[in-house]
Amino acid sequence: MNNQVKNRIKDKLFSIWGWISVSIGIVALAVFIIDILFDGLPVLSFRFLTSLPSRIPEKAGIFTAMMGTVWIFILTAVIAFPLGVASGVYLEEYGIKNRLSKLLEINIANLAGVPSIIYGLLGLEIFVRIFRLGNSILAGSLTLALLILPIIIVSTREAIKAVPQSLRDASYALGATKWQTIWYQVLPASFGGILTGVILALSRAIGEAAPLIVVGALAYVPFAPTSPMDNFSVLPIQIFNWISRPQKGFIQNAAAAIIVLLIITFLLNGIAMYMRNRWQRKMKI
Amino acid sequence: MISAEKEILPILNQQELYTVEPTHLHVASSDIVETIDVNVFYGDFHALKDVNLAIKKNSVTALIGPSGCGKTTFLRLLNRMNDYIPSHMVRGKVLINGVDIYRDKIEIEQLRKEVGMVFQKPNPFPKSIFENVAYGLRIQGIKDKHLIHERVINAIQQVGLWNEVKDNLRKNALALSGGQQQRVCIARTLAVEPDIILMDEPTSALDPISTSRIEELILQLKQKYTIIIVTHNMQQASRISDTTAFFYLGELIEVGKTTDIFTNPRNERTERYITGRFG
Amino acid sequence: MLILSDKMKKRKIIEFSIEKLLLASSLISILTTGGIIIVLTIEGVAFFKEVSVIDFLTDTEWTPLFTQKHFGILPLLSGTILTSFIAIAVALPIGLSIAVFLSEYSSVRFRELIKPVLELLAAVPTVIYGFFALIVVTPFLQKLIPGMSSFNSLSAGLVMGIMIIPYVSSLSQDALLAVPSSLREASYGMGATRLQTSVKVMIPAASSGIIVSVILAISRAVGETMIVAIAAGQQPRLTLNPLVPVETITAYIVQVSLGDVPHGSLEYRTIFAAGITLFVFTLILNNISYWFKRKYQEKYE
Hints:
heterotrimer; B: six-stranded mixed β-sheet; 11 helices
């Protein structure tokens, strides 16, 4: 009897510990966000969003970094989306179980675990030097596209796997070819899932600083980029740069820029989650 | 013989046909489907054993037998739907309109336009009713809006769905009832104008009223199409089919006029199955 | 059906080209891996022509940017391992507890609700965590631990630990949920509490999956860059003291990239030598986890 009571108390204690564990990360995040809001909100203004960088904290803004992030977002999406979906489709629908597809699979699993900074080294040698793209937005986007490709491929495959076989059967039975079946049935049915993965991957890409630092994105860019061949900075690098400065003003600037970056990140994640829920509900019918 | 061949081949060439072994053309014209010593394997599993079956034009043939007897395998053999199973292998001849669909160079997509299929569970595309029925035409590359419209409406009328859906053809097919969905699936198959329609237990997921409507439909469709239907329901087989084929453990045990099979089966196993003693 | 119309011929060609196009796209991932290996090898070979492998692996100082040059990777490695160890020491107990709590204690609804919130922890850009570690956590810890430097592996590791909690919790939770519920029911049937069931039955049954999650989390921590570059410092130091500045492999690569190091110089090549070390390290971790994953997938299929 005594033992049983002990066990029940232990069980109860773990339940409490479980609650604490679940809360720890969330509380830390909340504390952090509140701190950031305190530091950053006073600085965050229209002027801050539209000003060029400056040596004086009160005059500095994030316009160039934000434009760099927008450029990077769009170019990375344009490069990674078709490539990632295409390889996901190939592996799931065409990839016969042979040695090549097994190799591809292991390879993608491995790539997903390669640290982002290694992609930076790859981009530095291949895109910046050999392709002579220099420290341009294009070189940065290509690097990030390779970085998020495994994420897009994996989520594309998951989404395609969820499409019921009966849909493919129906299409084939009407005389559709393989590609027609994929294009008219499989892709539309899995599109919500694919897009969710792509948005999450892009959200990761615009939060990355390390690989872009390696390919030579700059901390200080006097003007907003106007072409893919321009030098650039992005929000995370601007933040990094401001954190490393001693003046208090720059720390506040960093906090304000973090608010902007967090809003973008949470917005993208929110959209992705909303789309995933809607898609999953649709797939259940 | 040689002269006969010479006479036939130029005609074939004129119609842009592939060369066909002339023997295939000697099949009696009323047999639209004929299998000769067909064996099907899934890896080591011998799913069909030496099946010889001829099916007449404009008839309804019911395939019956216990689960796993090979009747669905046989059905999917006829439009090559088993091709997607990697370890799958076919031996023997499967002639459709006199052409060996596994040996001669055929277009598998073209084959499936001629041999349509309706599945066990209604599987409409997550699209509008209209687009479901139009799908087969669109993938053929038909762009003529009037033709598509005409064929879609015609097909919906044929399956007796017109009065129920004529006002909302743009409605998602998934919003329809199970029976209506299955009729959309049949309409979708009809729109492509096949010769043969394969049905894999098309009413097993439906309520009795929807089932009887589909059965009536099958009897009407017989005028224009050849229908081969797999069913677990003995009454259904006896109500709608002209010919019944009984499969057991991959073998075609007995085939004959439905009335004969149900009143006077020659094989003991057939009798035991249709009287419900096993299966 | 024998008629092969021009339309069909055209379609066959389209089908064929599309398949090849898709194949080509999926080969890009192979090219990426190949590219990484080739780039690291070429620059690495050039580096090791000037610096002996033995020095690289045994020298206890890393000062390639000074006049007195030393090329021992050990200080960078120890910095990497130290910060990763602290991170795992945070993430493993908390992440595993969350996984057990959510899979064995909480309702399905709560589980579904909390999952995206926890995943948000991994979605926050790491430069932001760096800010958190440097501006919030370190000053707070300095009050508790006098003499702590403003750059240190402790706060970097702690914050990194919070970041990787979802890596441990969500994969471990999947592993726990994959255990057949008959096992769970058998344990309950014998009068065991939820905690006893979790510890004695569920965790052992899901162990391979849990190990996979931990290895992936380690691999993530080892490769993490911005948190350590911001909060752990840039002083390569062979130490296990979590209160002093250190430098990780990743932070070193960032440090060099920010400076003006000419292409082709020995300094330039050091980042590739550091990169090789990092790449090999994570490659081994990933392959161990892949192997475990295959093993436990077999178990319940």
